[in-house]
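Predict fold of asparagine--tRNA ligase; 490 aa.
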Amino acid sequence: YIRPGLVRKYSTRFRLPPTIQEVLSTAPVGQEVSVTAWVKSIRKQKRIAFGVLSDGSSAAGLQAVFHGDLQERVKEVTNGTSLHVTGKIVSSVGAGQAKELSVEKVEILGSCDPESYPIQKKSLSAEYLRDHTHLRARTDAIAAMLRLRGRLMTEINRYFADQNFTYTHTPVLTSGDAEGGGEAFRLAPTSHDPSLSDRDREFFSRPAYLTVSHQLHLEALCHALTRVYTLGPCFRAERGVTRRHLAEFWMLEAEWAVAPVQDPHLQTAALCDFVEGLIRNVVGNMNSEDLDVLWHHRENDSVSTVDREKRREAMMTTVTSPVPWPKMTYSKAIHELLKVDREWEFPVRWGGALQSEHEKWLCEELIGGPVFVTDYPAGLKPFYMRANPQVEGESEVTMGCFDLLMPHVGELVGGSVREERLDVLKASMQIKGMDPDGESYAWYSALRQFGGAPHVGFGLGFERLVGWLGGIENIRESIPMPRWAGRMLM
Ligand code: 4AD
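Predicted 3D structure, encoded as tokens:
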């Protein structure tokens, strides 16, 4: 049985068998189908057994009915068993689904010991499932999250392709800490030969790190392909263990060249508008069945059902409402925070970082939705950002940059106008203690020397987007195999 409509320009003789999602959506009653799947649950009666089969292709499983002479085989079937079944699609008599599979042939591919199988039917806490990371994709919520991630990637690629961006692949092994945050994982030397110099013991004959951001390399490609993006893994040795940070996470990053504009504020505003358009369009195309599973999933959840419904509605309104997401300068944000009569754990002052309690208040209480905070003080931001023109009478310099804050997630995106003037860039690197002509960054400075062009860019935390969209409380449930300080199970 081949899914109708699956006709390609260049057909091959090779055909994949249908997934359960395809069977449920397109196979007509009377059709013979075969599927390979895992048993989610099985209910055995004297002469008949009902199983729910899942191959992870959809939120819904396929109900399978095993009649009379299959009973011997079915005895061995338990939750988690993998099967290859063949049968006919029939109309379902049971409530809840339109069709089911009347099984004619069962092959047991792999048995599953019911005593020791960690994924029991009863509700399992997120913490427990993290201890069984290798099997947790068998649960509804993790499977829905995985499909959501895949679909988000597809939609993101589609959005960028529509805007004529090139998807590029920047390295994971890098020569420096792009963000200057001192959180880069360093590769250990590969040789212990005492006769070698420190440098020669290094695999690359120089220190090497796992990338914290693909931005700098993306900027190099932007200086040839004009509009580029990448979606790749980033690594940060952040010791603080929070529900928003991972040691390995994925970031969507884009860089593009822009026309020179006197006022960098306009560039920043346009950059925010691009990001808003991206998120709205991508999110608007998600599968609602998977979102239902995620939003209704309440294991280990501290939020009431009513509040969850409200949050989901607010999230969708954010995406569909024609009202643009508000923009607010950092100075204005500080001004608002200082007005609140509240004991902050971290005192509010101009020049200080916005802590997550401040960000939370700004988007959840003051605005009640996403908010772009722009024009942060120079001291809070990395060397590559372009400064705003200094306002007369003000000594403080702000940057042409923004952070996008989302309710319940905090900072989802950060971006800026990039400094394209070589002299200014070098000065700002020196202020941050970096050597603009040293081996780690000379190539970056040189981009400005050989046809440097005004450009802008941003980075979006992919797991935070997944979490915001699916109402997922902890970022560890937004990635297949989470890593954080002290923890890497597989
Ligand atoms: O604000 P960040 O550090 O910005 C950069 O790295 C820029 N170079 C990006 C760019 O302009 N190309 O990180 C960007 C986003 C954050 O807003 C957050 O969503 C996510 O990456 N992020 C993390 N997500 C999970 N775990 C962590 N440890 C994260 N650190 C940052």
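The chain has 14 helices and 15 strands.
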